[in-house]
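Lecture 7 notes: from sequence to structure.
We start with the chain below.
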Amino acid sequence: MYYVLGQVYQPGPMIYTGRDSVVTAVAIAQPNPMAWIRRIKVIRSSSDENTKAKLFEVNFDTLMAHGDTSKNVVVQEGDIIYVPPTVLGWMALKLQR
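Predicted structure tokens for the same chain:
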């Protein structure tokens, strides 16, 4: 499993197939209007407690607009893909609470 969280319509665990990428994971989870798709983060933890987690930032907008797949991270089992809210989206969420 891997996880897609944040500003998406279908957050939660996804079945890991070994061929998944950030683009496919985010497309399946469907970003909502508050999603900051230029700042998607992939958090990859390590099984070794002495090794820090790796953090990748993916600009989904550039990937889709220019077809530049060189920054399209291949998802690994246990990865967390976080789609943050935009600044205005964050403020709206705070006001909602």
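Points to note: The CA atoms of residues 67 and 79 lie 23 Å apart. The chain has a mean pLDDT of 90.
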